[in-house]
User: What shape does this take?
Amino acid sequence: MMDRLWHDANTPQDARALRSETRELVESQMWSLVADIDHVDESVESFPREAFNALASAGLFGVPFRPDVGGRGLTHPTAATATVIEELAYASNSVAAVYDVHCILAGASLAQGGSDVCQKYLRAVVSGQMVGAFATTEPDASSDLSPSAIKTVATPTNDGYVVTGRKRFISNSPVADFIVTLCRTGDSLSLLVLDTTDSRVRIGSPDRKMGNRGQLTADVDIAAVEVPARNRVGAEGDGLRIALSTLTLGRIGIAASGVGLAQAAFDLAVDHLSRRVAFGRPLAANQYWQFRLAERATELENARSLYLKAALRADLAGGAPEPEASMAKHYGTALAVDLARDAMQAFGGYGFVHRLGATQQRCRIEEIYRDAKIGEIYEGANEIQKWIIARQIFGRGLTG
Ligand SMILES: Cc1cc2nc3c(=O)[nH]c(=O)nc-3n(C[C@H](O)[C@H](O)[C@H](O)COP(=O)(O)OP(=O)(O)OC[C@H]3O[C@@H](n4cnc5c(N)ncnc54)[C@H](O)[C@@H]3O)c2cc1C
Assistant: This one.
């Protein structure tokens, strides 16, 4: 449906090309790899390794990055990256999330570091030789990342740090080669890269989740791990700034994944409403569904335009593209939840069933319904996004 309703009037050529490239990859390889992704309990073996390798072979991990680390050196890397994520989420929100964490959270934070971390880790992110993870969340801190809330501590030594603490919900960690970790250094925060080959970095069992089951999360227990100073990303004390600017890019990605998922629900609903007959005519002959889908088509247009605008501001002007990134994130992810609910209702009982016993016919609506919710929660809950926007309306003096 997107091709019928959406006209790429404002999308730059490089981002447009990435949409076609990703769609081709999804059509030729991804669908078969992701069909069961949300119906298998989480384990190290359930990581979508083949999908990850396919993304690496297609060079899609290079989209956000500069040529000196093996990246594509695009003019509009943020817009192109977000477009890739939208197209991946159309097929699988888990794969889109794995890509977002690997490339944006781990990759884009490393890209703000010095040449040591870029040469050792970022190059391996781009080639897909390593899987990256990014850890800010702790059992008692997530929305609040202030230095007083973070309990993971990096104590300076002669040539680096000793890190002790615990991180929670860390995506990719059960299979990651390294984890970019937010730690307290004195009164401020710093980002350090921890190698998971160190036996004192202990990864817990993968969490069992409602959806996004191909996105493995787990606790990371950090037991007096020695980290060399060359593994610091940026200057000591600059960790919160780098983490927050990375999360701003991340939320553009999550906005795009919301749009991809919303578009998938929309397309499936349109198809079902056009074919399913009740009271002697297709469901779509009821004006209720015509108007409902017309409203959702308008919201999809808005949501896509919003994340692309946020991305283009980041590409053209640099800095944090606020309030657009926060607007795009809360709007796009809420739309995915709304459209998943609409599609479930339009499908009736067939939406609630994953595989029909009688015919083995499969329906993806319940998967989309389960996957959509997390977009409203992670990479800054939607209430935090509204707070960021409110700060621009009323000023920090009033909003805090
Ligand atoms: C599948 C999954 C993957 C994840 N991946 C990662 C990862 O790779 N790395 C990582 O570091 N973390 C990750 N997280 C953690 C995620 O980012 C946090 O769960 C999220 O930020 C919310 O934090 P919390 O769960 O601690 O909720 P809390 O901070 O306790 O907030 C709970 C709720 O309170 C509300 N709230 C909070 N603050 C305010 C406020 N100021 N005003 C109004 N309402 C408020 C919001 O509705 C929020 O949803 C992941 C989580 C999940 C479930």
